[in-house]
Amino acid sequence: MKYIDEFQDPALAARLLDDIRATVTRPWALMEVCGGQTHSIIRHGIDQLLPDELELIHGPGCPVCVTPLEMIDKALEIASRPEVIFCSFGDMLRVPGTGRDLFQVRAEGGDVRVVYSPLDALRLAEENPDREVVFFGIGFETTAPPNAMTVHQARKRGIRNFSLLVSHVRVPPAIEAIMQSPDCRVQAFLAAGHVCSVMGTAEYPALAERFRVPIVVTGFEPLDVLEGVRRTVRQLERGEHTVDNAYPRAVPPEGNPAARAMLDDVFEVADRAWRGIGVIPDSGWRLSARYRDYDAEHRFQVGDIATLEPAECRSGEVLQGLLKPHECEAFGTTCTPRTPLGATMVSSEGACAAYYLYRRLDLPTRPGSRPTPAAAPTSAGMAAVTVPSREDSSVV
After folding, report:
1. Is the per-residue pLDDT at 108 higher than 60?
2. CB distance 135 to 165 below 8 Å
3. Considering the entire predicted model, what is its pTM?
4. What average pLDDT score do residues 182-202 get?
5. Measured between alpha carbons, how far apart are the two ends of the chain, in Å?
6. Which member of 22, 51, 87, 323 has the greatest number of CB atoms within 10 A?
7. What is the mean pLDDT of residues 184-196?
8. Where is the composition biased (Low complexity) (predicted)?
């Protein structure tokens, strides 16, 4: 693995941008699938540095954002029970459910704890045998293996007071759903490198061939993103549609066989609802039959949950790439990281959060107000841009 600084070199960025400008001859629309890539793009101003012919569309690649409201409300119901210790990563606590969030449940007396690993939750179950410990397992193929391993360990060690609230989703079916949408403008994809580091690239050639779109596996540093864009534009200009691995330092073609074996053992593929999008067939996982006793939905019988999305929140359109965050009337006014209407504003990978953190001064803060001027970044200054840290921001 190279040092990160080597992938933020302004001189190399300028060379990649020159190559992209020399290659592009017509408008193209590319979608980055990963929320981490979205934050890198907005933080470093990559979308502003690219030629006007290229549009980067932000896809549904934020795991917190696509967790459906119904699942958030199930989490709130379980976390409110006095016998439960409810464990989650920190970026889920402020995600709004119907009328409240996990912070409010904790303020009302619920035992809600932030953990840094699902194994921390398993340790709590061992230390508190008289309590039910639930871990909120969300995310794409990247976070699914450690959650699967934790359930495997719980069964192996006979820990019966642990369960997993599962909301895992898979990238390839989402790409298929995006391409089948009548409103789709996407002509190529930057695939998420960390997902492919687990699953490999075998699922993507069929998608590239079926929909005739290039799919380039891409990393997360500025040079990674620019190289992914460069390779994608070259394919588009040549009329090609193949899968190209631009992140070989982390992604072998076969992925991680041990992680994939764990997924096959603990989970089974299932239909899954995506917040703001709807149900996508075969787009997620649920616990397989031999591990069903560790499924928190079954253990706590929370199947009958009524949900209500805020009418003014347009995060569903943002997640589908139909709307840029600042084009939502609520952005930065009634919807902020401290008063979010949707998960895209509070997640550390949400597109709305990225625009609020790094692009807010470029945009009107109130309807009808005048935008504050902000100079577009230059490739020479890209790596030296000063941005607020996670600790300085109000994003969880």
Report:
1. yes
2. yes
3. 0.86
4. 95
5. 29
6. 87
7. 96
8. 367-384
Report the 10 Å Cβ neighbour count for 322.
Answer: 15
Per-residue confidence (pLDDT) for residue 365, from 0 to 100: 45
Whole-angstrom CA distances from 188 to 13, 360, 364 are: 21, 28, 31
Predicted confidence at residue 363, as pLDDT, reads: 52
Spatial distance between the Cα atoms of 250 and 38, rounded to a whole number of angstroms = 19
For residue 43, which amino acid is it? Answer: R
pLDDT in tens, 110-125: 999 999 999 999 999 9
Q: How many CB atoms lie within 10 A of CB 128?
A: 13
Q: What is the pLDDT of residue 9?
A: 81
- The three-state secondary structure class of 15 is helix
Q: Cα–Cα distance between 364 and 332 in angstroms, integer? A: 9
7 neighbors 223 (Cβ within 8 angstroms) = yes
Strands 132-139 and 84-88: parallel
Q: Which two tokens stand for residue 95?
A: 């995600």
Cβ proximity of 381 and 392 under 8 Å? no
Give the strands of the sheet with 132-139, arranged side by side.
111-114, 84-88, 132-139, 162-169, 278-287, 267-274
Token pair 């460069």 is found at 230
DSSP annotation of 295:
B
Give residue-wise pLDDT tens across range 329-338. 999 889 998 8
* DSSP bridge partners of 279: 273
Closest CA to 315 of 69, 93, 74: 69
Question: Residue 362 pLDDT more than 60?
Answer: no
- E strand intervals along 140-194: 162-169, 188-192
Residues 317, 320, 322, 326, CA torsion sign? positive
Give phi and psi for 188, each to the nearest 5: -170, 160
- What's the pLDDT at 366? 43
Q: Please say if the pLDDT value at position 354 is more than 60.
A: yes
